[in-house]
Structure formats: C-alpha cells, structure tokens
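Z., the sequence and structure:
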Amino acid sequence: MGHKTLLSVVLLTATCGVATFAVNAESLFTPFPDSKSPKEKRIHFTPFELITAVNGDKFTLLPVSGKLTRQSVELPESYSPEHVINNYLAQLKKLNAEVLFGCQAASCGDGQAMQRQLKPLKSVNADYHSAYVAAKLKGTRGEVYASIYVVNREDRYTYLQVDILDAIPEPLDLIQANSDFLQQAPKEVEIKDRRSDDAQGAADHPLLGRMPGSYIARYKQTNFTQVPVLVGISGANYQTKSLDAKLTQISYQMPESYSLFEINSNYAAAAQKLQAERVFHCKGTACGDDDSLINAIKLIKDDKEDEWQEYQLFKLSHAKGDVYFDIYSQGYFDGTPADTTLRVMELSTLKDDRVAIDLNALTDAISQTGKATLEGLLFDYDSERMLPESKPVLDVLASYLKQNPALSFYVVGHTDDKGERSYNQSLSERRAAAVIKQLSDEFQIPSAQLTAHGNGEYSPIASNTNDAGQKLNRRVELVLRSDKK
C-alpha cells in the first residue's frame, strides 16, 4: 500500500471523464503514517478562505462556506513538507481534483503570514519551510474543498493540518419563530423582594426609594460633614465641590436582571419628577478611571470596570435648604450590575449649640463626677480625623491637663449602636487615640498622662432609637484615674 496514504472514497459513476463520488469529510484521507498528537475541530457552518496565490506576505483568497472539519497531527521531522504534500497531490490527482493552488518552500512566501492566514490548531512558529495545496472536488452532494498545510519545525517535528469543507447551503432552519409571541403583551422579569437582606439599621432615604429587588449592602449616616461631589472632568483631573451637609450614603446591590441603563434611567426619571436640576453627568470611559473617580469623591466602594460606570449629580432647591444627591453605579466586565451608591446631602451649617466646654466647666465636672464629656470634639464622617471645629475644645483640654500634671486620665470613645459592634469598638478606640496624639503633638501633653480606651456602643447616655439620642451617644469623655497602673 505504498506509504499507506489512501483516499477513502467510493467511486460511484463517471460522467464526461470526471469522477463523482460520495464524500465523508471526516474520513476523506486516512491517517498519515507515524502521526501523533492528533487534534480536531469541527464547525457546523462557517465562511472559509482558500489561498489561490502568494506574493510575499500577501495572499489572493477564494472565499467559500460550508461544514468544516479541521484535523492536525505531528509527524517525525524526517517527513519533509514537500514529501507530505506530494502524497496528497498524488491522491487528489486520482480523483481528478482541480488543484486551485500549490506551493512549496520559498514559493509559499512569508511563513509567519501564512500561519496567520491559516490559523493552525497549534502555533509552530516556523518562518519558511512549508508547503500548501488547495483543491476542489466534485461530490454527489456538491463541491468539496481541501486545504492541506505542512510546515517543519526544525529539529522537532513536521506539522500537518488538513481542512475539508463541504460546500453546503447555510442551514437556516435550526430555530423556529413563534408568531404567537407578537400577539402577547411583554412579560416583566420576576424580581424577588430582598429587603430582609438589608444591612442592620439601614433604611431608604425619604427622598428616593429603591429599585425593586435591590437590598442595602452598606449604610452610613452622619449629622454634619464635608462631602466632595464631582462637577467636572478635564483629562485625568477631577473637579470637585465640597458640600457642608448631613450625609446619608446607601449602597444598593442590584439584581442581575437589571441593566445599568435601566438603573440610571430610573434614577434620572425620579430626579425629573422631583424637578431636580442635573448638575453633572458622565458615563463609561468618559468618567475616566473608576478608581480615581471613587477616590476623588471619597466613596466607600471597590473599583470595577471603567466601561461600566455612570455618575449623576442633582440639585434640589428646598425651602429649608438645598439638597444635593448623586448616584454612582458600576458593573462587571460583562455589564452585569454591581452596586449602586446613592448619597443624599442635605446642606446645613455646623450645629454649635451643643454645651460649650470651658476650663471652669471641665474642672467642675472632673471634681464632682470624675469625668467630663468633651462637647464640641467633632470627627470627620466614619473617621478618626478631627474636624477644625474641634480646636477650641483641644485648647481647653490641654490647659486643664497642664494645670493638673499629677493626675492621670482615660480618654474614652463612644458610638451609637448603628453598624457592626466590632467596627464601632474599633472606631471609638481610634478616635480616643487620635485625641491623645493631637494633645501630644500640638500641646506637648505627656503621653503617660493619658490612656486611650474604646467603649463602642456599650455605654449610651440616651436612647439609640432616634437621631437625637444617637447624636448624644457619639462622644468622647475624659475620665479621671485613681489608680497608678
């Protein structure tokens, strides 16, 4: 059987000297001897291009389409590309196949360009030593095209790829259309209510509700703080405006059935109903780097994808003071929504009507009860950073400590009971430590005179069921120590 290279066809009839036969593309050629590492790819229907001429790295191509079977093997290096391709040419000749094009070695042009065109199942990274033939055959079912590519990887192996394409009409009956659908009203996607998954103590803001099926993943509210909002973008620079306001920040986790377009359009529609003015808007990559945007406006969230982000800022004029609200939505790489953060900023001025602290009041409180609440000691939202308004309180506190150097004190931080207990405990201790550090750095108070302690939410002085009580519970106290530990 020679080199055992046989053409697996059954000759049926002969018409005008041209063989007509039944073609089975998967077994048109028997396996080449000594082949190994077989790979195969089958495509139900695809466009395909045969090379019919070569000029360096440029090719003349014949577009065809049909059912494609692509098979590849590795042969020992001793099989040269010319020898392999000549075996296939001999069998094609027996079938009276029309050879559309053939080349060997240098006549195949740029080897890398040929690889890019033929897209072998395995990258062989060979430059020149290749051979190729494209042929057209007649079968009982119609035309069949063969593309055979051989390339030698020096000192390793010879790669052979055989593409057989059955030129069939594109099968367009694989799916059926249901005309009854056109007579039906659209059915909305069923969305499950997930309010029970809301973070502890979280609630929608009275100004804007939630998208059905969303739940609150994170919730923070502060009575007075400075909030940066985005009002412009110039290149990689963000223009922000700082608002002095009561802040409510809510992060909603959205159902996957929503698109980001639907989410943002609904918030925009709600703003329109409120007759709010849209101050700024950006979408996708026009918003720049999402991580930089998040940092610019101090959001508590992770960055996702630049392409799937949108920011909207609105202003609402109100008789009791202007209200701003912004919405920042994000999505994953495929556009599936991640979380959407809503911030409502109710503009206000600093409430400085809490009981003022002075040296006499502090001295009296310590002598009478052994402790004093440091009224007016204010911190940034969800942070141990003290606001500038705290400076007068620190002045009074430093004066008292310098007048009583023999006394030792605890500086004790307290919070309300919103949020996780462990987080409240940590925040209260960090704030107490920040007070001591400020006194030491700016007023040279000996650190040995003060000890930081965080009491979290465990020692309220008012009810946590209302804003007024929560406000009183968020405090720092100076507590006299009688021990010498």
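The chain has three domains: 10-166, 195-347, 359-481. DSSP finds eight helices and 18 strands in the chain.

Let me know what you think.
H.
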